[in-house]
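Figure 3 (text version): structure tokens given as input.
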């Protein structure tokens, strides 16, 4: 019996050690990357600095437009080079475009990309549509980091998905045609359903509605955190 307990204890200790090593590797992965700094946006990559520069400058310009932007904060973004590398850092979220890991020093990991073209490579190996370039994914994930800094752990995790992702897309996207997306929403196009398309267009539509018609701003929307159903019901008059 003692031998069994000893074996269990050794296995448990090894598990804890492996968990600690993994956590350290995703919290301090800087040694495995080259780095390029754009003010307080730090991009870590395996490519050429000249290729990263254009992407970084575009992403920085987007986040600096947001009222959530804090010049005193440091945003660390790691551009992974392969699907396996991305899966290692993101585990359960390996099929996502990017991940903000609040429990790993706030590090952000972006899936493999064509940095020189400012384009992301999808989980299936295809190139993501140009309306969501690499700089969009960087700005989108940094937006999560900015919201987390603003709200703290409890309030950030209590955000409704449409608020969390709608604001992130509001910050990350280059342009958004409200009337066109409203028409798409009214016609129940698959692109407006996150579960069907994987896109946050519907969530951004709701956020833009709140900004355009309800006098909300990013801060007030985060504070009120209204339900998706509530906002959709309010928007019905615009969809007739």
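Below: residues designed for each position.
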């Amino acid at each position: 019996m003692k031998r069994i307990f000893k074996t269990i204890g050794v296995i448990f200790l090894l598990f804890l050690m492996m968990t600690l090593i993994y956590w350290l590797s995703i919290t301090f992965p800087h040694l495995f990357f080259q780095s390029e700094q754009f003010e307080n946006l730090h991009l870590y990559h395996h490519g050429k600095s000249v290729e990263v520069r254009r992407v970084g400058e575009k992403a920085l310009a987007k986040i600096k437009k947001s009222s959530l932007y804090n010049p005193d904060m440091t945003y660390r973004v790691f551009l992974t080079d392969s699907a396996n590398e991305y899966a290692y850092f993101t585990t359960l979220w390996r099929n996502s475009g990017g991940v903000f890991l609040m429990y790993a020093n706030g590090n952000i990991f972006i899936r493999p990309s064509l940095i020189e073209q400012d384009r992301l490579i999808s989980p299936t190996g295809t190139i993501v549509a140009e309306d969501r370039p690499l700089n969009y994914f960087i700005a989108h994930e940094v937006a999560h980091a900015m919201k987390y800094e603003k709200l703290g752990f409890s309030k950030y995790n209590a955000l409704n998905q449409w608020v969390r992702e709608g604001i992130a897309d509001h910050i990350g996207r280059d342009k958004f045609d409200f009337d066109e997306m409203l028409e798409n929403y009214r016609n129940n196009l698959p692109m407006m359903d996150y579960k069907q398309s994987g896109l946050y267009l519907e969530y951004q539509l709701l956020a833009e509605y709140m900004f355009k018609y309800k006098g909300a701003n990013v801060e007030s929307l985060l504070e009120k955190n209204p339900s998706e159903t509530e906002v959709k019901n309010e928007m019905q008059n615009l969809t007739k």
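The two ends are 73 Å apart (CA to CA).
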